[in-house]
Write a structure and sequence with these properties.
This protein is an alpha+beta fold and 236 residues long. 25% of the residues lie in helices and 40% in strands.
């Protein structure tokens, strides 16, 4: 049985290796929706906006996000990977897009993060006909993940990966996020303008991160990561 330090060292190594099953972009991607990419967010309530005295409520539903797995572990100014270890807990920092040699982006993963969903809008309390929302994120400044890696009595074949935190950070003033809505109301252009303001985008990002840190998302991601870790360590 590998000791804890040896296990963590192996985990760190395969997290950085594009050919590994436990490579950062690989564990975040699951075509069946069990990891981060793709990920469906059932509902995001952006609250009520006052536009010239008119109260407009905005709720996004069934938001399907793709492309957030196109990341690589970040490196600091000295060329060291931004991975820290505290006992059996590993914290990594990653950036999008992934430009690491040896990585081939899967066909179903877009180069930039993209999302589409349904838009429910109320104006002065009255529901409008449903609309749509499209969103693109050209660069992720920091995707931070925290997980524990532990080994059972069965050796590497029983390693367990448990994610405890996941969040993304964007350089919003740089215009890396673009939102476009389409709905049948004269307020369409105004709503587009408001949703693309940094403060509104920051609020939207906060709500997305709240979803990513939910126990349901972390548990399903942990299952995928555990499977990939066992596959990677079994071939080491």
């Amino acid at each position: 049985m590998a000791d804890d330090n040896q296990l963590i060292e192996m985990i760190e190594n395969i997290l950085l290796t594009p050919s590994s099953d436990f490579y950062i972009a690989t564990i975040l991607h699951d075509p069946n929706g069990g990891a981060l990419d793709p990920r469906t967010i059932d509902s995001i309530d952006l609250g009520t906006i006052d536009i010239q005295g008119v109260q407009i409520g905005i709720v996004i539903r069934n938001l399907v996000v793709r492309g957030l797995s196109n990341v690589q572990v970040a490196f600091d100014a000295d060329g060291n990977p931004e991975i820290s270890v505290d006992g059996d807990t590993v914290t990594f920092h990653a950036v999008l897009p992934n430009e690491q040699p040896g990585y081939t982006r899967p066909p179903d993963v877009p180069a930039v993060a993209a999302a589409h969903g349904d838009l429910d809008v109320t104006i002065a309390g009255q529901p409008m006909p449903p609309g749509t929302i499209l969103l693109t994120i050209s660069a992720v400044e920091d995707l931070t993940g925290v997980f524990t890696a532990t080994e059972g009595d069965g050796g590497l074949s029983t390693v367990e990966i448990a994610f405890t935190s996941l969040s993304i950070a964007l350089d919003l003033p740089a215009g890396v996020m673009t939102i476009a809505v389409d709905l049948p109301t004269v307020f369409k252009q105004t709503i587009n303008h408001i949703l693309n303001q940094p403060d509104m985008q920051a609020s939207f990002l906060d709500k997305v991160n709240a979803q990513l840190s939910s126990q349901a998302v972390l548990s399903s991601l942990s299952e995928v990561a555990t499977k990939e870790a066992r596959a990677a360590l079994g071939s080491s």
